[in-house]
Amino acid sequence: MISSENNPPAPEELNDKEPLRIILAEDDAEDQELFVDALEQTDVPSEVTIVENGQELLDNLRDETQPDPDMIFIDFNMPVKGGVQALEEIKADEGLRDIPAVMLSTWDHPSAVEDAFEKGADLYVQKPSSFSGFVLILKKVFLLHWAKGLLGPVRKLFFVSEKNISRGDS
């Protein structure tokens, strides 16, 4: 199988590949379960590590016995250390800054989105209100990742919500 940046692999072509290593930083058990279930529906081979706050995320990323993830999903609001604060520390760390970081939040307020991008988020995803919306959003995130779209994001494109996915916007 040959793929290029312009033609990212289809999920069914990924079964021969190494699983995508993902860390999900999310304190809500229902949101954790929703994420994992939606991820399974994308048919993307993956391994998910779940941490419940920003400090656990940083500890995991700095643990040299753990492999670096391919992508991290960070909830905006978490106890102990919030998502934006953890993101800021990750992007300030030379060994971690290149890991694509996707912020997850129920908020779509422009100041929250702007703050996440200022701290280094590669993508800001508004948590969907439906399971099918979550599956669609994850597929879009992975498509952007494989197309190297998470490098140097364009903010209009890189705020993803269920509304703009269902309308077919980029």
TrEMBL record:
Modified residues (4-aspartylphosphate): D75
InterPro entries: CheY-like_superfamily (IPR011006), Sig_transdc_resp-reg_receiver (IPR001789), TCS_response_regulator (IPR052893)
Keyword Phosphoprotein: yes
Database matches in Pfam families: Response_reg
Residue ranges constituting the Response regulatory domain according to the UniProt record: 21-142
Database matches in PROSITE patterns: RESPONSE_REGULATORY
Sorted UniProt keywords: Phosphoprotein
Protein origin, superkingdom: Bacteria
Protein name, UniProt field: Response regulator
Organism: Flavobacterium procerum
